[in-house]
Specification:
single chain; disordered N terminus; binds adenosine-5'-diphosphate; binds magnesium ion; disordered C terminus
């Protein structure tokens, strides 16, 4: 994740964490307090939190197999019991404790490569032990490496329930968690939030039965169903969780609908003319999402829609058409982008579409001179500027809109919640004199993102957000061939760059991300530029990086767009949105340092024209495990959603969203894909409950979301 994105994401997270986590500086912590703190790290604050901290899996310690039986099983965890016949510390090939145990059926060797002195003493000849582990057939017959074991007396009773294994944080033992949970269960308020007739109707277990069973499953339980989480007890948990999600979603929606926005009902002559003069036809997917947006904009409550589309899928024109509807309806629209380059590109493109039709588009960024800024502000305030495009300079107090009806945020994940809200609050305030309606209004909001958030996550984290997806690229794109090459073969890559330039193509050469130091990153970029200039004397090489003044940046980008530069050496400033169709080769140095979504974004800069495009990922070996996975994913797929899905797999939801506490995902048990049928049921029930049973709703939300609910609304 680029530093900026990380920051924006962390801003969001901080907002989420602000509540209830502060702890006054106090005296050194006692053991109990330390443990409580570790529990808190897992999000476990209350007895109910503990009760809902359900096992990841179970271990079956309820039965014992004979060693002979066990050795007939494949590699599978088994439990055996016997008496130690030999206990020996060996030194070759390395120091290890080797214990031989016997039962009536045979013998088994146990190896401990790391062991304590008293462990060696404890595992003495004649001692009876109960051992769990994977049995393998080693050189000297049946053996187990590092099994878990317990010293027992003959005839010691076996547990009567499966042993739960809980998700645990660092320094928290299973034994401690088990104890904490058992004691929480003894104190719990077991009231069922669902009425009994409903449980019968939906064939669901009672809450208490379900929770108790999952923590202490009886020996005769259907273990498979338990592991697969298809057991009725699991179904009840998933249902409850989904119900909580649906309830909070619907409540947030209702709250939004209760707010007022100015309806933007007109798709009029400007919109028509705009569409007609576009040099292309909208794709079916663009058409569909445009309809969704148009429909929202007609309503008198604020739209809150996320427009997702892979890099290059054509979100900008859809945003422009949304703005056209605001303009046709007599309102202003604003489009905010995270970088000057991107804002500038939007401005040029959209102004070129709109201004010939007599619609004024204003441009506002931090780099404008004072005078220009004042002039732009005046046009915005008077309403002469119908659409305003810019960077976060737009949220400054000096910027006043005449009649703002629609806010569009591009690359929304690059902004913090606060920034997005600040822009929204510039909405048309109908309390102003001369306006008849006496209600404060909120503008409609359209957020765009090319970092596709998997639908499951979007639904979980952004409770009150409609999602539109452009799932189709404009025609005529050629797929990008991606290759990974060790950087000691750089010469070959330079030759390839040369050949591409000879064919009239343009090339991006992206310099490595150096998170610790912008200066170092700049230096590397400069070095690379010099290196390429030397190696390719007949080519024109440009350099663009974050330290350039905006005007200088613009000059370089213009020259590249105009084809005057063959190779553009760039830091990650080109990551978002830059659109130069003739650029068809991209080289990314130290690709192993980039995150998946960033690589995908970068790669999306090529493949925009008709020419076959290629992306070369230079890496430095040896590659770490996740770096290898990332590069492989890049080679295997170009589908942004698939990439996002794998990213999620590699990193987990917490980190994926930049949240620091992973494992805080609000859907812990249900899976929106496989449990779709439950989602439907939960959705229907939520509808009914909200109409009738507000006490039940409150209880249920409290139980499942605690205080977290309110954070879902932004
Ligand atoms: P992104 O979704 O990544 O923001 P853009 O909006 O920048 O993508 O669009 C990428 C390119 O595709 C632009 O040059 C745009 O003009 C072009 N484009 C958008 N829609 C279409 C279409 N329906 N047919 C052809 N080209 C299109
Ligand atoms: Mg874009």
């Amino acid at each position: 994740m680029p530093a900026q994105t990380k920051k924006a994401a962390i801003d969001d997270t901080l907002a989420i964490q602000a509540k209830g986590r502060a702890r006054p500086n106090a005296a050194p912590l006692s053991m109990a307090q330390k443990s409580a703190q570790k529990l808190a790290k897992l999000g476990l604050h209350t007895d109910m939190d503990l009760a809902l901290h359900l096992p990841l899996r179970y271990e079956d310690e309820t039965s014992i197999m004979s060693i002979q039986q066990a050795s007939l099983r494949g590699t599978q965890v088994v439990q055996v019991e016997g008496v130690i016949s030999v206990s020996d510390i060996q030194y070759r090939p390395r120091r290890q404790l080797v214990v031989t145990m016997q039962d009536d059926s045979g013998q088994l060797v146990l190896r401990f490569l790391n062991f304590y002195g008293n462990q060696a003493k404890q595992l003495a000849e004649g001692i009876r032990i109960r051992v769990r582990g994977e049995l393998r057939h080693g050189f000297f017959g049946a053996e187990m490496v590092h099994p878990t074991y317990k010293v027992v007396l003959e005839g010691a009773p076996l547990p009567s329930a499966l042993t739960p294994v809980y998700p645990a944080g660092e320094g928290l033992s299973q034994a401690y968690l088990r104890k904490a949970i058992t004691s929480a269960l003894s104190r719990l308020d077991w009231r069922d939030t669902l009425p009994p007739e409903l449980l019968t109707e939906l064939k669901l277990s009672g809450f208490e039965d379900a929770v108790r069973l999952l923590h202490n499953p009886p020996t005769d339980v259907d273990e498979y169903a338990l592991t697969e989480r298809s057991h009725p007890a699991w179904i009840r948990m998933k249902f409850d969780e989904l119900l909580a999600q649906q309830l909070s979603l619907k409540r947030a929606q209702a709250a939004r609908r209760a707010r007022t926005a100015c309806a933007l009902p007109n798709v009029g002559s400007f919109s028509q003319a705009f569409l007609q003069q576009l040099p292309f036809q909208l794709t079916a997917a663009q058409q569909r999402v445009l309809e969704e947006i148009r429909c929202d904009l007609r309503a008198a409550f604020p739209m809150q829609r996320l427009l997702q589309g892979d890099v290059g899928s054509g979100k900008t024109v859809v945003a422009a058409l949304a703005a056209a509807q605001a303009i046709d309806s007599g309102f202003q629209a604003v489009l905010m982008a995270p970088t000057e380059i991107l804002a500038d590109q939007h401005f040029r493109k959209i102004a070129a579409w709109m201004e010939p039709l007599g619609v004024e588009v204003a441009w506002l960024t931090g780099s404008l001179k004072k005078k220009e800024k004042a002039a732009a502000n005046a046009r915005i305030e008077s309403g002469a500027a119908r659409l305003v495009i810019g960077t976060h300079a737009l949220i400054q107090d000096s910027v006043q809109f005449h009649k703002l009806g629609l806010v569009i945020v591009d690359e929304q994940h690059r902004f913090g919640v606060g920034q997005r809200l600040a822009l929204r609050n510039k909405g048309f305030d109908s309390n102003e004199p001369g306006v008849s309606a006496q209600v404060a209004t909120v503008p409609h909001q359209l957020m765009m993102s090319a970092t596709p958030i998997p639908r499951t996550l979007a639904m979980t984290y952004f409770a009150d957000l409609e999602v539109s997806v452009i799932d189709q690229l404009p025609p005529g794109r050629t797929p990008i061939v991606t290759r990974t090459i060790d950087q000691n073969r750089r010469e070959e890559v330079i030759a390839r760059v040369h050949a591409a330039a000879q064919e009239g193509r343009q090339i991006y050469w992206v310099c490595p991300l150096i998170e610790e130091s912008e200066a170092l990153q700049l230096q590397t970029a400069t070095d690379t530029c010099l290196m390429l200039t030397e190696a390719l004397p007949e080519l024109r090489i440009g350099l663009v990086h974050g330290r350039l003044k905006p005007a200088e940046k613009q000059t370089v980008m213009d020259a590249f767009t105009a084809g005057e530069i063959h190779v553009l050496v760039a830091t990650t400033v080109i990551e978002v949105g830059v659109d130069v169709p003739n650029a068809s080769l991209m080289v990314i140095e130290h690709a192993e340092r980039f995150g998946l979504s960033q690589l995908h974004q970068l790669r999306g800069r090529v493949g925009r024209g008709a020419a076959a495009s290629a992306c070369i990922l230079l890496y430095q070996s040896p590659l770490g495990g996740t770096a290898k996975q990332r590069l492989m994913t890049m080679r295997e797929t170009a589908d942004g959603f698939e990439i996002a899905r794998r990213d999620l797999e590699i990193r987990g939801p917490g980190e994926f969203l930049g949240a620091r506490q992973s494992g805080q995902a609000l859907l812990r048990f249900a899976d929106l894909e496989t449990d779709q049928w439950l989602v439907e049921k939960a959705r229907n029930l939520a509808q009914t409950l909200l109409q009738q049973e507000s006490v039940v709703v409150d209880q249920h939300l409290q139980r499942w979301l605690g205080g977290k609910e309110e954070f879902l609304k932004v």
